[in-house]
Every structure is written in structure tokens, then in C-alpha cells.
From TrEMBL:
Keywords: Magnesium. Signal peptide: none annotated. It comes from Gloeobacter violaceus (strain ATCC 29082 / PCC 7421). The keyword Zinc-finger does not apply. The keyword Cell division does not apply. This is Gll1679 protein.
Length: 138
């Protein structure tokens, strides 16, 4: 069972120490207890952010591998089966809310599953609130 949609902006806080806050730490505990769901692009987005952190010297290759190993142990499920069918709705949502298609994928998933969304992204937070999706952390 998934209790919220997890955006990469939150997950990265668990991977790079100076990004963490008490609110993101609390979300990690909630995730461990209740699980979360992500759109399939989440894995590539997280990997890219970690690769950029490595290239900028914030993490080394061993630290990136260790973080990916820890993330893999978390109860995170992917919305694989619905992604292709959701593309049309996601594109419309991106247009209507002036989001990237990537951010709209998180929002569409939250709307379809009637789940709150965990994000630090200000545009995604604002769009979620406009369409009636609860946002974590509050």
C-alpha cells in the first residue's frame, strides 16, 4: 500500500545530507511505515540528480552506489502499468497547470490514486493545491 506519491525533490534530501530537513526525515519514516508510489520516470530523475551531485563533488561514486542501495530497500512502488495510458491526461495537465510533463506525471498519479504528493518543487506544490491534491510536507 502506498500512502503518498514521492517526488524526486524529497528523495534527494535523503541522499544528500545538507538537503535534509526534519520534515523530509519525517517523510522517510512515513515511507518506511506506509510505502509510496512513483511514476516510472522517478528512477531516471533520481539517478540523474545523484550523477550531477557526483560530478559536482557533493558525492563520490561509492556514496552514490550506497544511496541507490538504500533507496532500493525502501517500500517504493512504480506505477508501471498505467504510465503509457496516462500520457494523454498528463500532457493535458501539464498544459493546463503550466508544468513540465515530468512534474505533471507526479501530479496525475496523485490525482488518479487520490493520494497526497510529497514535493519541495514550488510549481508542483502550487499546481497540486490548485487541483485539490494535498501536499507533503504541509
Amino acid at each position: 500500500m502506498s500512502s503518498f506519491v514521492l517526488d524526486c525533490s524529497i528523495a534527494i534530501c535523503w541522499c544528500i545530507e545538507d538537503e535534509a530537513t526534519p520534515q523530509t526525515d519525517a517523510l522517510l519514516e512515513r515511507l518506511r511505515d506506509e510505502g509510496a508510489i512513483v511514476p516510472p520516470l522517478w528512477y531516471f530523475e533520481l539517478g540523474n540528480v545523484l550523477l550531477q551531485a557526483e560530478r559536482r563533488g557533493r558525492l563520490n561514486a561509492a556514496q552514490v552506489s550506497a544511496r541507490l542501495g538504500l533507496i532500493a530497500e525502501l517500500p517504493i512502488s512504480s506505477d508501471e502499468g498505467r504510465a503509457a495510458r496516462a500520457l494523454h491526461e498528463t500532457l493535458l495537465l501539464a498544459r493546463g497547470e503550466k508544468l513540465t510533463l515530468y512534474d505533471a506525471a507526479y501530479l496525475e498519479l496523485a490525482m488518479r490514486r487520490a493520494l497526497p504528493i510529497a514535493t519541495k518543487d514550488s510549481a508542483l506544490r502550487a499546481a497540486a493545491l490548485r487541483v485539490g491534491v494535498d501536499v507533503l510536507p504541509p
